[in-house]
Amino acid sequence: MKKFLLLLVAIMVGFSLYAEKKAKVIKISVQPQEAAIYVDNNLIGYGYGEFTRPPKKNQVSIIRVECNEYTTANSKFYGGDERNSLSFNLMQDGFYRGSAASGLVNKYMTITLDPQYYSIDSEGKVKRPGSSSIKFY
Questions:
Q1: Whole-angstrom Cα distance, residue 32 to residue 66?
Q2: Residues 84 and 111: beta-carbon distance below 8 Å
Q3: How far apart are CA 25 and CA 52, in angstroms?
């Protein structure tokens, strides 16, 4: 009887040690803090988030981290992965800072058209040779 209880205690300790290796909740941290974290296309937080480990070894969770002015990071997390936390440092997108919003760029632009390419009829419609009429409001 004592051997049976000793064996049962040993098995329970073994299972508890195995369970500690793989936490059920996976933690994700991101720099910058305002970055949105998506797991399987569901928003789980900004800068920090938690999600449950996939139950089977071959199941996968798709992780996407995105923020304005930074490149998007994509990753996969399998149920058999040993890690309990993930960390991402997003890189700044050089093209984002080098461009300007087109609405501001073209706001005060003047375009002059040669009258040979259009005509305006009595109703105020613009007519181009060989096409239907266009009306400006």
A1: 10
A2: no
A3: 5
Q: Where is pLDDT greater, at 133 or 61?
A: 61
**Among residues 59, 57, 62, which one has the least CA distance to residue 44?**
62
Distances 24 to 15, 50, 81 between C-alpha atoms, Å: 14, 10, 11
Q: Of the candidates 11, 18, 13, which has an alpha carbon nearest to the alpha carbon of residue 3?
A: 11
Rounded to two decimals, the pTM is 0.57
Give the pLDDT confidence of 75-121 residue by residue, as tens digits: 999 988 888 899 999 998 877 666 655 555 555 667 777 777 777 78
Strands (DSSP E) found in the chain = 25-31, 36-39, 42-46, 48-52, 60-66, 73-78, 85-89, 119-120, 125-127, 134-135
Q: Are strands 119-120 and 125-127 parallel, antiparallel or unpaired?
A: antiparallel
d(CA 65, CA 45) in angstroms, rounded, equals 10
In three-state secondary structure terms, 124 is: coil
Rg over alpha carbons for the chain, rounded to the nearest Å, is 30
